[in-house]
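Figure 2 data, in text form.
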Amino acid sequence: MNVGIRRKEGVTVLDIEGRVIGSESFALKSIIDDEIRSLQDGEVKMLLNMGQVRAMDSSGLGIIIAAYTSIQRRGGRIALLNVSGNINSLIVVSKLVTIFDRYDDEEKAILSFHEA
């Protein structure tokens, strides 16, 4: 798994590529935790670009849920971008569709952080 990190209009965008499964997902947790720590409370705005994620299991989903909880506690927000069919199904089956805002367009996703 590879993760690119960039900032766009005050939003931290993580471009995730590969598989987010099993022990591989812990690398993503470490990256997310480092990014959260580097920002002040209320400034945590994170967009996870899942467009290049080939597979995700419950471990990967757990990492994203933990990130949601950490970010929310700090007064921030997390959203998902380019969620593919299988991963979208995992989110729907686990009833997390009401928790995560999902977008197919990066510009709209970035704008949503400024409207909230």
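Caption note: Residues 29 and 63 are 6 Å apart (CA to CA).
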